[in-house]
Amino acid sequence: MNPKGGIVSVADSFPYKVREIENVFIPMRDGAQLAARVWLPEEAERTPLPAIMEYIPYRKRDITRGRDATNHAYLAGHGYVCVRVDMRGSGDSDGVLTDEYTQQEQEDGVDAIAWLAEQPWCDGNVGMMGISWGGFNSLQVAAKRPPALKAIISICSSDDLYADNMHYMGGCLLGDNLSEATVMFAFNTLPPDPQIVGNRWRDMWFDRMENSGLWLEQWVEHQRRSAYWSTSSINENYSAIQCPVYAIGGWADGFTNTVLRLMEHLEVPRKGLIGPWGHKYPHQGMPGPAIGFLQEALRWWDHWLKGKDTGIMNEPMLRAWEQDSVPPDTSYSERPGRWIGESGWPSKNVKERRYELGPYTIHMGEGHGGAHQREGQESALALQSPLSVGLEAGKWCSYAATPDLPGDQREEDGGSLIFSSRQLAAPLDIFGMPVVEFELSCNKPQAMLAVRLSDVAPDGKSTRVTYGLLNLSHRDSDADPEPLVPHRRYRVRIPMNGIAQRFPVGHQLRLSVSTSYWPLAWLPPEPAQVDIYPESSTLVLPERTPREEDARQPEFDEPEEAPPLELHTFEASEHNWLLHRDLATKESTLEVINDQGHFRIEDIGTEVRRSTREWYSTVNDDFISARGETYTERSFKRDDWNVEVYTRSILSCDESNFFIHAQLDAYENDYRVFSKNWEKVIPRDHM
C-alpha cells in the first residue's frame, strides 16, 4: 500500500463496457416517481447482471455527479448495473422531503429494489451501498427485508438516531444538529432540473420551498429519546436485518461506534472495517492511509451477489487501523499506525482494565496493572469550566477537508480538571470504548460533563485520542431525564467513542474533564460547579494484547476509481476555521468556512455555486449568550436556467427556551420569487 500515491483513475482495463443512462423514472406504489441515473454494462442487455443501488437526497444530476461518476462507473465496469436514486422530494424525484429516515423513505427504497430486480438487465440480485445518509438507509431498508436485497455496504452510518447521529450525544445537544439541519435546509429548497422533469420544475420547486419544513425545529423539539428517534433506529431490533452487512467507518468520523455495535449484535454474516478517516469514502480517506475501497467492495459484491469465492469471508470479521502517537494537528494528511484484526467482537483479546483516579493522577503501575477502587473517601475536586473549553475540540463529524480535527489540548486542559498517569514504561494498546465512572455532586439541578482521553508527549504536547459527553440529567435515562438534587452524591458512567490507539513508552495518558465543551455541545442553562470524588472514581480502558497475526494482515489494494468528471473551475473552493476573540467585549466566535467554489459541469453545461458559513459565539461566561448562525448560498445556471437560493438559520437560547429564526430567499433570473421567515420558541427539556 502506498498511502501517499493518490487515487489511480482507470477505465481502459475495465472488463465491461458501460453505457450511461442519464435518467429513468422508477414508479412507486402510490404513483410517485423517483429519478435515477444508471450505469449499464452492455453485457447486461444480453446476460442479466446484479444491480447495486445508492439512494440519497443529494442530487444525482449535479451535486454528487462527480463522486457518482468515479464510484458507479468503476463498479459497473466490473460487471454490476449501478443505479443512483434521488429520494422522494430531492433532485429530480417527485414529492417533498419533510424529514430524514422516514417510513415513506424506507418503503420507497423497498419499491425501488423490487423494480430493479424485475428489469431485464438485472438477474434478480440487488445490493445497496452508501456513505452517511446512504449508509443509514441501507441498514433501514435491509430491516424491511426486500426479497431481492442480498447484501449491503454501510459506510459512516448509525444504528441509533438519537445518540449517534449529529443530534444528541450523551443527552447533550450537539452543535452539528444546527450544522446538519442547515445542510438539509439548503438541499430541500433546491429545484429539479428542467431538462429532466420538464415544465413542471417550477411548481415542484415552490412546493418544496413551501412544504419541506424547518428540520431544525423538529430536531430541537425532540430532546428526549422517544419513538421519533427509535422508529428507524436499527439498535431497537438488530434481528430485523437478515442479509449480510459490511459496516465501515473512520476514527475521525462521528459514527465509528456503530461498526463495533453491529459486529456485536447482528446475527448475519458481517464484516467491519475502521480506518483513520473522517467522513469520506475509504479510497478518498483522510487522514490517510486511504485504501482500495472499490476493489474491496467488488470482493464483497462478487461473493454475495455472484457467488464467487473471493476469500473475503475467510479474513478477520473486524479490521481496524491502530493509530500511533502523533503531535496535535488540525489538518494532518496521514496517520501512522498498522492494521489489526479480530475474528469476533467483543474480542477475547481485549480486556477491560480498571484504573483508580487519585487527586490529579491516574494510578498506573509499570505493567499497567489496574488498581482496586477504594470507597468512602470524602475529598472532592471542584470543577467549573470557562466557556473557552471546546474551541479546540474540532467537529463532531470531521470531513478532514478543513482544520476540523482537535488541536493541542493544553489550552483546553487549562479550563479542565486533569488526571495524568506517570510516563509509560511499556507501550499500551487500547481497542474499544474507554469509560469513566465518576462519583460526583453538583450545586445546580442541570450540568454537563465532557471527558477527554489524550496522549501527552514528553514535550508536553497533548493530542486528543477520544472523548465522551454526558448531560447529567440524563445520567440514568435519555427517555426520562431527571434534574440533579443539588449537593447529593451520584455515580455516573460516561462512555467515550471507540478507538484503536497505541501509547508509546515515555508518554502519559491524560483524562481531562470539563463542564462545558462549546460549540461541539450546547451549553447548560447556567454555570454549575461539579465536585468530583477521585478516590471513588475509575477509568476503564479496553486494553488489547498485540499479536503476531497483526503483522500478517492481508494488504489492501491501492485506491482506484473511474476517470473524474470534467469540470471548469471559475472560483476554487475554500475551507477554514477561524477563531475571533474580541478582548474588549469578551465575545469569542468560531467561524467555519465551507465554500465549494464555482464550477461548470461540462457534460451538462450547468454552472454550480455552493457556499456555507457558520458562526458560533459566546460572550464572556454568559451561558445564555450561546448563539449559532449559518448562511448558505446555492445557484444553478445554464443558458435556459438561472436560479439562486439563500438560507439563514439562527439558534439561540435563554435559561428556559431555545429560539430559532430562519430565512429563505429564492431568485429566478435575478428576481426574488419566494421568501419565507420562521420564528420558533422551543422549551428546554432538561437540556
UniProtKB/TrEMBL annotation:
<dbReference type="InterPro" id="IPR005674">
    <property type="entry name" value="CocE/Ser_esterase"/>
</dbReference>
<dbReference type="Pfam" id="PF02129">
    <property type="entry name" value="Peptidase_S15"/>
</dbReference>
<dbReference type="GO" id="GO:0016787">
    <property type="term" value="F:hydrolase activity"/>
</dbReference>
<dbReference type="InterPro" id="IPR029058">
    <property type="entry name" value="AB_hydrolase_fold"/>
</dbReference>
<dbReference type="InterPro" id="IPR050585">
    <property type="entry name" value="Xaa-Pro_dipeptidyl-ppase/CocE"/>
</dbReference>
<dbReference type="InterPro" id="IPR013736">
    <property type="entry name" value="Xaa-Pro_dipept_C"/>
</dbReference>
<dbReference type="Pfam" id="PF08530">
    <property type="entry name" value="PepX_C"/>
</dbReference>
<protein>
    <submittedName>
        <fullName>CocE/NonD family hydrolase</fullName>
    </submittedName>
</protein>
<dbReference type="InterPro" id="IPR008979">
    <property type="entry name" value="Galactose-bd-like_sf"/>
</dbReference>
<dbReference type="InterPro" id="IPR000383">
    <property type="entry name" value="Xaa-Pro-like_dom"/>
</dbReference>
<keyword id="KW-0378">Hydrolase</keyword>
<feature type="domain" description="Xaa-Pro dipeptidyl-peptidase C-terminal">
    <location>
        <begin position="298"/>
        <end position="557"/>
    </location>
</feature>
